[in-house]
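Consider the following input, taken from an annotated entry for Ribbon-helix-helix protein CopG domain-containing protein (Methanorbis rubei).
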Amino acid sequence: MTDNCLNGVMMDRITIRLPPQQVELLEKLVETGEFPTVSEAVRYAVREFLAGRSERIIRESDQVSTFDVRL
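Applying the prediction step yields:
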């Protein structure tokens, strides 16, 4: 992972592999104007996924060690 700054926010760059059908759907979201870029659509999906699980993740990780989450 590499550090990167986007709109004043530090970001790490990662690489993922997706089935072609999922990539096509992400591209359609950009084409229809729902998201400005595929990256932003993926960031949104990850935020939503983590937001729904963050409380459980924090609770479970607190049992093991201290965990700092910044969403």
